[in-house]
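Moderator note: this is an archived Q&A kept for reference. The question asked for a predicted structure of one protein chain; the sequence and the answer are reproduced below.
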Amino acid sequence: MTVPTRNQLDFLQSIDTPTVCNLIEIVAPERRGFGYTVKHLHCPFPELPPIVGFAKTVTFKAKDAVPLGQGSYMQKRLDYLDYVAGPPQASIMVMEDLDGEHVGYGAFWGEVQSNVHKALGCLGVVTNGSVRDIPMIAPGFQMLAGSIVPSHAYVHVVDFGVDVTVHGMAVKSGDLIHADRHGAVVVPTDKIESMQAALEGIAAREAKIIAAAKAGGDVAAIKAAMKG
């Protein structure tokens, strides 16, 4: 993976996720139909700015008790924290709930986990699972989740650092993720420079169309703006 520069990360953080998707369509047209979330995700904090970070991937379950028992599971929890705290940083947790028809049965995310993960360099989470404790979440920690529930049930990590798919978005550990209230997308790091160059053009084209519409122009004026 091409390592993005600080300038490139700042650029991505300055635009919203739909704009990122628009730019990817221009510079990597083969990516137009995949690489982003395709179902609604609850966003308890829509006012937060976009987050840009490297994926820390996790699979988990909540419906049934931990198969190994609580004692044997402790070492996995400690190893998991080492993974979260390790490079690359800053990170975004991308977590796939494996409970099938019971997805979202118990929330991994709440007051404790948001504070722990924020302390370890995490900006937020994207999951098809559930979240809870909304008023007590660590300040500035973004959450995009399949549902909101009251209990954590038997929630436990199954594996980490593995390939996951969350609401249609396939992610590998270390992928660069852009997310906001609209959803999330995997950013092709080798295309960021081209995306920066394309932004001015797409903004100008959209501005002409919007201006024609707001000016009360007839269909001919709008067609002319669309043709450039």
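Archived answer notes: The chain has a mean pLDDT of 94.
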